[in-house]
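Protein 1 of 2
SEQ + STRUCT:
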Amino acid sequence: MAEITASMVKELREKTDAPMMDCKRALTEAAGDLTKAEEILRVKLGNKASKAATRIAAEGVVGLYLAADGKLGALLEVNSETDFVAKNDEFIALAKGCAELVAKQNPADVAALSALPLGEGTVESTRSALVGKVGENMTLRRFVRIAAVGKLGAYVHGGAKIGVLVDVTGGDEQLAKDLAMHIAASKPKSLDSSGVPAELLDTERRIAIEKARESGKPEAMLEKIAEGTVQKYLKDVTLLGQVFVKAEDGKQTIEQLLKAKNAKINGFSLYVVGEGIEKKVNDFAAEVAEQAAAAAAAAAKK
């Protein structure tokens, strides 16, 4: 049997928010496999065991550029170490300036972007100078450039923590803005079911079967129950399947809205600051011990 360490329990708890003992039992049942243990917790605790996965730890902003004619746009994420620096005017200006460069110069990657002229120097020299000024590291993490088939709707939310560009054919400017706002609020994983990875659907199906089995449902019904769960999941995570956040009847889906407006979504990009990044969290006791050891070592050298 694999040894279940305190660090493994801590990692699973941070990912799931599940009680400590539940995490330990799940890890034991999964023979130490963290991914399998997380699935076990979702079977037992439902969505309560996945809410921590949506928490974002890294700081920074999303810079957004949208051309006046709505045909060209860009999103760019710049990360900082603290939220204080993320609110700095020069930091925000760097993000916006870089987003404009992405749209107009179409760099191949972050390295190419960093070499482009900005202000009195380059993007990299501007970034480096700002690092020296504020005393905190900052990085250009990622960007996307969109040349629209139709016209772009744009939305930035929450102190530039979320940025959206959506390419819409048909409809009007207000529809494009509303769709961008909806994407920021509902965070779809893809436009439709074809964009959802098969492994995600397999996981949802497997969890649904286990939950139904544990609740005492007959074996003959498990596949049908699982399929219903997967279809509901697809409605939740695909843009076309989601209920429009401004729907007056609380039922109209994005697909139905587009049909009513004779419009089509060609694609979208959604950036959430720090998505996929885990910020290092120091153990306070360990940090104090480390500082004390460093001080003792320095004193010994004198």
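Protein 2 of 2
SEQ + STRUCT:
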Amino acid sequence: MNFVYISPQFPKTNWEFCDRLKKNGVNILGIADIEYDQLDQKLKDSLTEYYKVSSLENYDEVLKAVAFFTHKYGKIDWLESNNEYWLAQDAQLRSDFNITTGIKADKIANIKEKSKMKKAYKKAEVPFADFSLVTTPAKAKKFVEKVGYPVVTKPDNGVGASDTHKIKNEEELKAFFENRNKDIKYIMEEYVDGDLVSYDAIIDSNGNPLFETGIFEPAIMDVVNDGLDVFYYVQKKMPEKLLDAGRKAIKGFGIKSRFVHLEFFKLNEDKDGLGKKGDYVGLEANMRPAGGYTPDMYNTMPIIQMFTKFGLIWWLLMKLEMQT
């Protein structure tokens, strides 16, 4: 089996996945834009071969790298970066090389554009904040008349809390339209008073969870805008309501054979149209592991030795995909 790993050096703990897969007989073929000598030795030992491109932003170069590996090792069975930034490129590469074990280019917008995520939540019957794709001040004011202040604006296709704004009055709304990036499509949402939590899982080839946990953290928008301290923790025991919402969302998105990091608000008060205090409201879907060193936190959980079992699970997912 051949697994192309895009940018395997980031984050540093990616070598763990590569190592476990390689020990299960998988060829791990790395592509990145740093010199081979700069790779951590553990990662070097975990790769079957490494191909350096001048920039991962140069699609033609990355395409040639995958073509090289295909010529040398045969058909590519799997291609992943597990990085939000590269998901669209991953999907395009799968389309170009007919790699059937992941999301292809014609479906990537469903998990990258926030407005399309709402459709999946609706299909799953998971409550979500009302929204509008605002293009003019008049359209924005009409939406505000419907939901009231405050509202939240952010790029429809964006990563993290970048360019996210909480707008509390007409003056701030005017400032937003004066200063916004006119090349970006923005989504405006009703404000939801709730604690940010997540449903994190590995989903098998039938769309069922093999491993489930979650994260509690302050809202990243508040951290960025208000300069708050950053902290979060992994929940030892998941609330049944959150498990139910996460599993419903997985079905709504139709996700199979991958990591997921789904964000929800836990309501701090009753809200018409969304639910009662303590209910969960769908926010955003990220079809990759939680960021940073969160997988290392999973690894401390007594129910799973994260990297060893994840390597085995990924290998099992590959075997299952080859049989279907």
